[in-house]
Amino acid sequence: MSGADALLAMGDSALASLARGDAEVIISDTRSELTRFASNEIHQSVAERFRHIRVRLIDGGRTGVGEVRGHDGRAIELAFAAAEDSRRVTAATEVSPLPAPSPEDRDLPVAFAEATAAATPEERAELVAVVTDAAGAGGVNAYGALSTSTTTTAIVTSAGLRRSATSTQASLVSVARGDDGGGYASRHSADIAALDVTGLAAEVVDTCERNQGATAIDPGDYEVILSPYAVTDLLEHLAWVGFSALAVQEHRSFMHLGEKLMSDMITIRDDARTSEVFPFPFDDEGVSTQPVTLIDHGVCSAVVYDTPTALQDGVTSTGHSLPQPNTWGPLPRHVAMDAGGTPWREMAGTVSRGLYITRFWYVRDVHPLRTVITGMTREGTFLIENGAITRPVKDLRFTQSIVEALANVVQVSRERRLELGEGESGVLSPWLHIGRFSFTS
Amino acid sequence: MQRLTVKNGVVASVEVFEDEGIGIRVIAGGAWGFAGVDDLSPASIEETARHAVTIARASSRVNRNPVRLAPAPALVGEFRTPVLRDPFEISLDEKVDLLMRTDAAMSGLAEIRIRECSLEFGREIKHFASSEGARLDQTIIESGGGMDATATSDDEVQTRSFPNSFGRHQVRAGWEAIEAFDLPGNAGRIAEEAVALLTAAECPAGTMTVILDATQAALQVHESCGHPTELDRVLGHEAAYAGTSFLTPDLLGKFRYGSEQVTMTADSTRAPGLGTFGWDDEGVAAQRSVLVDQGLFTGYLSSRETAAAIGQVSNGCMRADGWSRLPIIRMTNINLEPGTSSLEEMIATTEHGVYLETNRSWSIDDRRLNFQFGTQNGWEIIDGKRVRLVRNPIYSGQTPEFWGSCDAVAGSAEWQMFGVVNCGKGQPSQLMHVGHGAAPCRFRNVRVEPAR
Fold first, then answer.
1. Residues of A with CB below 8 A from B324's CB?
2. Do the Cβ atoms of A47 and B36 come within 8 Å?
3. What mean pLDDT value characterizes chain A?
4. B425 plus B334 within the same structural domain
5. B161-191, pLDDT tens digit by residue?
6. B404 and B313 share a domain?
7. What is the pLDDT, as a whole number, of residue A1?
């Protein structure tokens, strides 16, 4: 029996003893390892392995949740008992029904690679050495982490739904630092064998070498070219504050469906089925995740739903639920911006004076309804003069409405990169040339 | 752990979470290895220990410099968070009843679209043993709770929170702490303030005097003193993620971090902070260290390995957020020590400025110098009086200049221990609960503006 089948069988067995009401059992087995390096040496290398069980019981309009992390044979019983304890004290209310299985719940893609599942500490150390050796050869120091993870998830419900999937992820993130400045690069894939480690090493050392001896410039409004690392922050924060049906229902989202708020060049989707953004077949209710076009050529097109918000609006769930019940609402976790037509290396050619931003750091929502965020530039902020990147400048703080920035897009690159946002979801982003971006200090 | 949430008059969720496992940290071949597992059978534990050794040996093939640890005594003992009423002895019904009463007290105003309140309780039983001979048993109990009232209009959304924002105020104490919060007694006021903010004037812009309430002062301490004094950041261990620090070792004992009003300590002995314990996760005893002494930078948060790198011994700041994660340097209770002023006196002696309450947004650069914070509300002060409520305030600055402009800190009567429950650091990311004692404090010549 495969790992997924064993978890499904465990869920079946638990549901077989359900005396009354409805139940949902989510079981996941995770094996995650990470090798971390600093100053061209491995200073932390870790592994963890655990089983997580979440049980939701619904009876008489009352819902209870019990969660247990542990491999003990009693773990699932403990989770059921905890769920019943909590169910008992909740007031009866209108409860969203457990989703029924759908005929299309099959053959959906999932990000998995055997090489990642089988990766060893020795292999990770060897790949890390590619980066630290390149940094050493360049006379700089490399810092970063290479992680591999494998997760098998199974969802079984009393409504007849049975879903399972095994996914993998490999991520390499690196900063290189010289005497007076640094660079950043990352690569992510389901398959550790497909990680372009050599490309990352070259990129991070190159950015670091070009970013030495930065000088200060005045804050103010600048034309900018944002690399995909920076664009990912904009997209992730839009997803958090506005792309959820609950945010719209609660009048706290910028999304006014049918209104054109951004440039014609901007189309943003959530697509859990594309091989480019860690595909995964279903959400935390076991509903198949549908592709959704969120922004269509600048127009607010759609938001994502889970079962409770779909019931509220009289529609069906798009399969974007977080574990139920929750107060946060649904969330798109496979966001991608459509590519444009300009090769990214040609984008600076039309900028007479502006900034190239490698990445942002510590980005926070200042006014969610207005999509105003603040943050710093980090590890690679360069001045563009007369169509060419000329010199590094010291990091700046920006405070900027994302929607306004995306309304002022001048060019979208042909190429895109997969980056992990701060929430660790994959985001597929192009380079963006934006006409005006506000730096405040 | 128990987590209970009521939203808009409905019990949105009651969750009970249990977690059990072992983490094994080894030095082999001069390098660290760590492995954690939730299967506590002898065979599994042995396999996990072997895997930790395999990981360490793989790292040692790349490394040139073996790990060196500062000496520390191997201790034996027991610690238990002192509580008057164990929160796990209080029934779920009583907890739900408290939240429903809080929710009801927030209701009644048409503009309040979202009411949310929650309670969270944790009990961690931790056994620590080392090959050096340490044997330590700890039982840590936490209690937390809070509420948010969100008002909306066609073009504005405003939230007020109590006792702190981002979900809750949390301490290492029992049910008595929740009772002291008096959530129902503050709910009506919070809802009214959220509605008032919808039509309040935008915060004035300019360089002016800023008075922070104790909750915002606590977060300012967290971001601009707690993080930059973490010695692993200083040594580059976090350079690829959390960042580094402007407080380099050459500045220790020489650098003027703030004004003479500013004394900051790391104190893991001070109840009821979220950084209060018996021993850290290397077995080093809880203690008090002075980080900033009347404005002078004097100390770091350290571990046995990082302390050795600067010729010191650990001051006990190694903490993991659970058995499955490696201990790393974390804040304990990082406190702004009380001064001699009071909020009333600070306002009365301010010609023009703003009094800012309750954090809304926070951001600071990777060396912990350039910061910008937003708060849920502000009160404009003119000629020593609060004259009007203002919305969407943000203030910004550079850490040493900002703390250097601090001219008053309120005294012990207004000093309170707060907690941060979402402090992220490390790869894989760990969320730590840390404590901050703080009181209202005043700063001169600060850049203030509305969020636009």
1. 48, 50
2. yes
3. 96
4. yes
5. 999 998 789 999 999 999 999 999 999 999 9
6. yes
7. 60
User: What are the tens digits of pLDDT across the range A360-372?
Assistant: 999 999 999 999 9
Q: Residue A133: what residue type? A: D
b (16+ CB within 10 A) / e for A396-427: bbbbbbbbbbbbbbbbbbeebbbbbbbeebbb
Q: Which of B32, B362, B447 sits opposite A45 (nearest CB)?
A: B32
Question: Interface pTM (ipTM) of the complex?
Answer: 0.94
Q: Is the pLDDT of residue B374 over 70?
A: yes
Cβ B361–A175 below 8 Å, yes or no?
Answer: no
Domain span holding position B387: 206-450
Q: How many domains does chain B have?
A: 3
Q: Does B55 touch chain A (CB under 8 A)?
A: yes
Q: Which of B18, B38, B362 sits opposite A78 (nearest CB)?
A: B18
Q: Which domains does chain A have, with CATH numbers?
A: 3-206 (3.30.2290.10), 214-441 (no CATH)
DSSP label of B413: G
Mean pLDDT of B238-260: 97
Does B427 touch chain A if contact means CB atoms closer than 8 Å? yes
Q: Flag if A327 and B13 touch (Cβ within 8 Å).
A: yes
Percent of chain B with pLDDT over 70: 100
Residue pair A69/B21 in contact (Cβ under 8 Å)? The answer is yes
Tell whether B282 and B322 lie within a shared domain: yes
CA distance B437 to B334: 7
CA dist A86 and B6 (Å) reads 13
Question: Is the per-residue pLDDT at A72 higher than 80?
Answer: no
Residues B248, B102 within the same domain: no
Q: What is the pLDDT of residue B72?
A: 97
